[in-house]
Amino acid sequence: MKRGSLIIVSGPSGAGKSALVGRALAAIQNLEFSVSYTTRPPRRNERDGVEYFFVDRREFEARIAAGDLLEWAEVHGNCYGTSRRFVDGRLERGTDVILDIDVQGADIIRRERPEAVGVFVMPPSFEVLRERLTRRSLDDADVIRMRLERACGEISRYHEYDYLIVNDGLEAAIRDLEAIILSTRCRMSAMTGPARSIMQTFGGTHAEDP
Length: 210
Ligand code: 5GP
Known about the structure:
The protein is α/β, with parallel strands linked by helices. It has one domain (6-191): P-loop containing nucleotide triphosphate hydrolases (Rossmann fold, 3-Layer(aba) Sandwich). The protein contains eight helices and nine strands. It has helices at residues 17-27, 57-65, 84-93, 103-112, 126-136, 141-155, 170-185, 188-201; strands spanning 6-10, 31-33, 36-38, 52-54, 69-75, 78-83, 96-100, 117-122, 163-166. β5 and β6 (78-83) form a beta hairpin. α1 (17-27) packs across α7 (170-185) and α5 (126-136) packs antiparallel against α6. The radius of gyration is 19 Å and the shape is globular. The structure holds guanosine-5'-monophosphate. Guanosine-5'-monophosphate is lined by residues 13, 17, 36, 40, 71, 73, 75, 80-82, 100-102, 104-105.
């Protein structure tokens, strides 16, 4: 059976990661979103267990201590972490898992799981990012300033990823993300299992079979 692929989507907040990930999830079968734990309070319309599992700091710390977090990071004063059990359970079933996480978390996962595919999402310019963060007005002015300051550090790490999407328009950016996810499924490393089964029908493994 084919193991699922781990796809990390990262980049500064306001780059459009969650919109892109949402569209990819709606368009592509056998792809699931890794629902993270966070100590951030829910925003309007956010539901527990859908966008995040909303927990308090005590529960978050208990999960770190129990080793349940594949990675975790403090972002804008709140803690965010990826559930190891959720991710590995889906990957073992053959489902691809997509993560929307910050650059610190992405760094940890890429070191622990070198087979993971890293996708960095960039806004076309600093001005556009500022406009987007202001327009979506989910946060107050101080928070927006903090997010912009942080974006300058985050964006400088784009070259550490396998793929770069410049989000200058949602439709083009979504096509890029879908293409990346679909091509990930055909990587030789992901296809070793199915290839071996097919080779069996040809009378066993070939000397050049990996
Ligand atoms: P927001 O509060 O806007 O939902 O997310 C803030 C930032 O936290 C975003 O950059 C998002 O990608 C990141 N984030 C969400 N979940 C996780 C996680 O599990 N781990 C890490 N390291 N970052 C996360």
